Structure formats: C-alpha cells, structure tokens
Amino acid sequence: MPTPEFVLELRKKIGHDLLWLNGVTGCVLNDQGQLLLGRRSDTGEWAMVYGINEPGEQPADTVVREIKEETGVDAIVTDLVAVTSSDRVITYANGDNTMYMDHSFLCKVKPGGNAKPFVGDEESLNVGWFDVDDLPQPLAESTVERLQLFQKYITNKQHGDAHAFFRFDGKQY
C-alpha cells in the first residue's frame, strides 16, 4: 500500500507539515549474489525495497513484510547494516513534507521460501534479480547511496571486520 493508514490520519491533523517517520530498506541478495530491485510506479526508477514502520511494528519485521508485499519474495534479515537519519526534507507531489530515520537491513531469501519475484502491489511496475555489476537504470538516488553502505559493510564483513562500518545517525563507528 502506498501510504499507510496511520500516516493518512496524521495528515488530516497536521496537513503538509514536516512528519518524521521510521523507515526500512531491504538489500536482498539471492544465492547467486544478485540484488532484488523493483521499478517504482511513482518515479519509474529502480530501487531496493523501502517501507514505513507501522506503529508498534519492529523494523526487521517491517522490511520482511515490505519485501513480501512488493516482490513476493520470502526473505529473512541477516544483518542490521545502518541506522541513518535523512538530512533533507522530502516534499512529495501532493505537498507532504517528510524526513526519515532509516533502518538498512541486509537480507537473503528464506530457506524453502519463494525466490521468484513478481509485482505484488501498485508500488512497482516490475521487479527482478540483477547482477550487482549490471544494475538497471535509472536507479533511485537513495538506492545508490544505500547500496554503497551495503557494499562497504559486506566487504568489511568478508574481511572479518563487519562492525567497523556499522552506522548510527550517519556516523561511522
């Protein structure tokens, strides 16, 4: 669903004023190392799976739910890679202003689960697995930025130093 019901209810009270939301990003890799992407219906850009936490929902549960809803793929979270705050206000076409605290999760296909992507809702025009060295264009700016975080994290983890790049609020620790 494009805009969660709780956000619509809040917007009735605050109009287009700035709204701070918790979001998630799922970097889903299959056994071949391919990346799951969806072509967004609102921008036409290819992107990793994004979503907004429902009240009371754990961020890891949100990302698994969003991956299933948008792509049909059954995923599990393997790593929390970054918790970052956006430094810019996003103004949507309808005038709504929003900023996000994003939880970026590395995910894989759930063993025994569905790995064949399909367009699961109206948020996507197309979905599929892509080689990381040959990603479709245009890529959403937020996907380009977050993909760099994931690639750095994966490289560090392969060298036994996964926590060297764990991020909170945009700072490396």
TrEMBL record:
Residues 19-153 form the Nudix hydrolase domain. Keywords: Hydrolase. CDD domains: NUDIX_Hydrolase. It comes from the Bacteria. GO terms for molecular function: hydrolase activity. The keyword Lipid metabolism does not apply. This is ADP-ribose pyrophosphatase.
